[in-house]
Design goal:
7% of the residues lie in helices and 37% in strands. The chain is mainly β. It has a single domain, classed as PDZ domain (Pdz3 Domain), CATH 2.30.42. InterPro entries: PDZ, PDZ_sf.
Length: 133
């Protein structure tokens, strides 16, 4: 498994393996783009159908400061050391707005790995032959 910026945690779902990669990302605010992201979700308005209250990246602006660094559905864990886990949407937006010219984000990214193949039983027959000199 390739790890770029941090740890990974895995879980199994329906035969496939899900790995969470953690990344540290620094974004610099750019006029006209801000940080180049849109967020959604939160405790008061979950973005995901399973009710996950994470703050999620819902858009990454092309040619913006987050392009190539963040992906849609990345979950924000913290911004400049302030936890964004299990917070309301408005709180997450306020933390990002109050970040100033740069923000250090910790995000987790869901990676789905193919299911491990079923173990197969091999039948092997050994035959002993007498060796002639």
């Amino acid at each position: 498994m390739k790890m770029e910026n941090g740890d990974a945690h895995s879980e199994a779902q329906g035969g496939e393996r899900v790995v969470w990669e953690f990344h540290n990302v620094c974004l610099t605010r750019v006029p006209g783009y801000g940080f180049g992201i849109a967020v959604s979700g939160g405790r008061d308005n979950p973005h995901f159908t399973n009710g996950d209250p994470s703050i999620a990246i819902s858009d990454v602006l092309k040619a913006g400061p987050a392009e190539g660094k963040l992906q849609i559905n990345d979950r924000l864990i913290s911004a400049n050391g302030v936890s964004l886990e299990n917070v309301e949407y408005a709180r997450a937006v306020q933390v990002l707005r109050d970040s100033g010219a740069a923000v250090q984000l910790v995000v987790k990214r869901r990676i789905v790995l193919p299911a491990a193949p079923e173990p197969q039983t091999l039948k092997i027959t050994l035959n002993k032959n007498k060796k002639k000199d």
